[in-house]
Recover the amino acids of this structure.
């Protein structure tokens, strides 16, 4: 399949346009396993390789997407991700390793990757004393006017020299961070030290590689019923962003610590999704680590775990839908050899009896008089033959109490899990009536070799009230570590304008992941830059940080809330000497 790469096979220059053209739909494939089949079925496709045998395929298919084509299995449709926000350096041991005569770590010679909403390039957090930028490279995926990164089909790349030129001549030309989320994470991870503002990022001398993720295609926003006013990104763009950051790391021959502050509730929660596998594969590379938000879904009411006892026909699951909810996808996950099926009772009392779907079968069901449409399909999940997923897409759902009947047939594990979308994508009053707070970790926080962080309050030593809980659906310990993530402050970009706001604060698991990314850069400085452990990768780093974690005596470790404890890089170095 190598000859498919960057090949124009259709009538238009699809490599140049397909990534942003709404007439093309995007799919994630393993091009060694799926490439020949896709080329046979869709001869006008074009393919953008992502590495590790994964690729993004663009297929000319104008019109709405319903997810009904039998050759498009579960993992091939990109998921949408949302943002994970809603005394810290001392707590994490960063100040001690910075001031230690033996260590003196500040992130020199390392890179921090920020894949998010972009950053404010004019902020003093990201500029040296002479005004030049500390950003080594910046890819704005949504800007199609300038020079594209070499080997990529869309977006605009800003080199260090281009950023410095614009900072001097025309700062308004630079890409903006309209949301502020990426700026915040970059500041926490690698913001420059400012004694006057009493601020420093965890790795203040690390440089940045930034990807500003573009808005998802409209057909995906419509398919997932994500509102226009909500920030979201699509899975294949995140994979290409990681590939870009790794490429800059290789070109500059510097280690990179990548912050992932986004998440989704959709997927099997067992580390087998396309993005999770991509992260795990690249976490094994020397000089690469991923630091991932665990999610803020612990009290959202968007997870339900149930069991259909032997001898019982079904279990009833109640969920409420808010007034004005545009739509949402609910997924049911269960393990083979048991076969699951569902029935529904609407708020108006209309009953849809047991819907028994064959593998890959799609049905569309309309409820009267509510005018709700349910699009439902059964798949083999993310691992071949090991799990079943039923995807229920509610379009214009009626407000009120719904009852879902879950049926189980066959001998084996009759436990099932249901997930709704993340809080950002739903109205407040859409939730399960009897939810389960455990197993609310968002993806890609379930990636096997990524390092996943849960937020805690450094002042009170308590977990963030909205923090997601582990474990993964397959029973692995996640989150890995806790890091500060409650009411964390950075200097306000507006402070210099005299509006009175000296600083801004955020809470959430993405903030904790940003601390983790800065700590990762410090470990890479010691290991890779200083030559103490040239083989250090994300998997090894996870082990060292777990060994050095603070574990207050009130809990047994590991656990679903704190993982292996509170991250402490200084004690991680001490543990290496034991």
């Amino acid at each position: 399949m190598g000859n498919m790469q960057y090949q124009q096979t259709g009538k238009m220059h699809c490599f140049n346009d397909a990534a942003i053209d709404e007439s093309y739909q995007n799919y994630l494939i393993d091009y060694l396993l799926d490439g020949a089949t896709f080329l046979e079925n869709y001869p006008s496709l074009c393919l953008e390789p992502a590495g590790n045998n994964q690729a993004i395929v663009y297929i000319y298919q104008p019109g709405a997407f319903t997810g009904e084509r039998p050759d498009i299995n579960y993992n091939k449709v990109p998921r949408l991700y949302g943002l994970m926000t809603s005394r810290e350096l001392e707590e994490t041991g960063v100040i001690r390793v910075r001031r230690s005569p033996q260590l003196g770590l500040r992130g020199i010679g390392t890179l921090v990757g920020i894949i998010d909403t972009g950053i404010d390039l004019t902020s003093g957090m990201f500029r040296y004393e002479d005004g030049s930028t500390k950003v080594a490279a910046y890819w704005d995926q949504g800007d199609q006017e300038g020079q594209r990164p070499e080997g990529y089909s869309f977006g605009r790349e800003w080199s260090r020299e281009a950023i410095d030129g614009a900072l001097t001549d025309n700062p308004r030309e630079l890409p903006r961070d309209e949301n502020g989320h990426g700026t915040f994470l970059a500041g926490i991870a690698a913001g420059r030290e400012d004694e006057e503002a009493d601020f420093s990022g965890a790795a203040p001398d690390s440089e940045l590689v930034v990807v500003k993720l573009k808005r998802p295609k409209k057909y995906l926003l419509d398919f997932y019923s994500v509102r226009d006013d909500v920030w979201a990104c699509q899975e294949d763009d995140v994979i290409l962003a990681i590939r870009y950051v790794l490429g800059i790391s290789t070109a500059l021959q510097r280690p990179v610590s990548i912050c992932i502050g986004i998440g989704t509730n959709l997927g099997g929660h067992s580390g087998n999704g396309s993005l999770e596998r991509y992260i795990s594969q690249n976490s094994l590379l020397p000089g690469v680590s991923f630091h991932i938000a665990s999610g803020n879904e612990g009290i959202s009411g968007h997870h339900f775990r149930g069991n259909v006892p032997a001898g019982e026909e079904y279990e009833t699951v109640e969920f409420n839908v808010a007034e004005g909810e545009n739509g949402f996808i609910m997924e049911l996950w269960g393990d083979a050899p048991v076969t699951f099926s569902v029935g529904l009772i609407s708020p108006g009392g209309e009953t849809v009896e047991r819907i028994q779907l064959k593998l890959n079968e799609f049905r569309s069901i309309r409820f009267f008089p509510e005018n709700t449409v349910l699009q439902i399909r059964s798949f083999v999940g993310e691992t071949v033959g090991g799990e079943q997923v039923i995807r229920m897409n509610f379009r214009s759902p009626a407000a009120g109490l719904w009852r879902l009947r879950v049926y189980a047939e066959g001998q084996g594990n009759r436990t099932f899990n249901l997930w709704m979308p993340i809080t950002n994508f739903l109205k407040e009053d859409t939730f399960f009536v009897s939810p389960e707070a455990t197993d609310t970790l968002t993806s890609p926080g379930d990636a096997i070799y990524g390092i996943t962080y849960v937020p805690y309050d450094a002042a009170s030593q308590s977990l963030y009230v909205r923090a997601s809980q582990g474990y993964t659906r397959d029973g692995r310990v996640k989150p890995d570590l806790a890091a500060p993530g409650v009411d964390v402050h950075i200097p306000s970009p507006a402070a210099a304008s005299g509006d009175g706001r000296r600083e801004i604060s955020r809470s959430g698991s993405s903030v904790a992941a940003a601390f983790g990314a800065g700590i990762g850069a410090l470990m890479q400085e010691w290991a890779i830059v200083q030559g103490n452990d040239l083989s250090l990768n994300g998997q090894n780093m996870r082990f060292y940080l777990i060994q050095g974690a603070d574990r207050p005596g009130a809990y047994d470790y590991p656990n679903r809330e704190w993982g292996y404890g509170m991250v402490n890089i200084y004690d991680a170095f001490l543990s290496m000497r034991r």
Remarks:
- Residues 189 and 518 are 4 Å apart (CA to CA).
- Residues 2-63 form one domain.
